[in-house]
Fold this protein.
Amino acid sequence: MPILDKIVVITKKTALEELIERFNTRAQARFYIEHLGASFDEYDAAHDAYQRALQTVKDAIPKGARAQFVERSFLPTFLFGEHDLVVTLGPDGLVVNTSKYLTRQLILALNPDPARVDGILVPHALAAAPAMFAHAQRGAFRIKRISMAQASLNNGQTLYAVNDLFIGARTHVSARYRLCFQGAEENQSSSGIIVSSGAGSTGWFRSIVTGAAEVMQNFSQAEDLRAAQEKYRFDWEADYLFFSVREPFISKMSAAEMCFGRIEANQTLDVISQMPQNGVIFSDGIESDFLEFNSGTRAVIGLAEKKVNLIVGV
């Protein structure tokens, strides 16, 4: 059985390309940006940097290797082979978006522009591409198996998340649902539920912990509250998740006793929608890719069986 069958490079449109799609030509895009008093030079520079990175990757692909380039908007319909090496050329969000469509394939994440891309989930510089392709062909690499969250609905639909799941209302109205966890249940009204993985602990989860600690410091000067702001991080490979209820509202019909908790590997968080319409579940901040979550729909939230296989070294 081959270690590597094909190299699939996942690309993304640059901001300049998206502007040209919107305004039809580069000249019209420039006019629009400069008319607003902004500089068009940064769009040009970022686009040129990405194109140079893309050419570098093309040049680094070993001779004779099968290769395919796929723009990320085609991911939902693209069929990956079991032994494909998936190369992402873009920011952390491209790694996250790509991972949800994979099973056991390996991901090699390359940073196309270190000056503009933070690269928390993108461990490799472009200069490492030739060596990493060679190591991948020989099967000589180290991987980090990043845990994912999973939402399974009683209508058979499933959604995966590398960073976090959002369960709530599409608009800025209160989400209504019944929460079931560790044998307890309660009706809630809130701004939604965030379920975070270890990879997401430095993002949305950190914001939640930081905000909650800051609010409570206005009521208490306890040292442990200040220290709580730095306890947000947990490992990418952790076999548990955290759920956080945003802005829970207490009323005759809703309670707020179950607003934060740790979901272990053998546990699930069950949420039953009480929203007649506009209930949604989306993952990793991509609101356009969602599951409808309206009245009577039950979501079972827990660790996903599959993981992200991210190449981190040799």
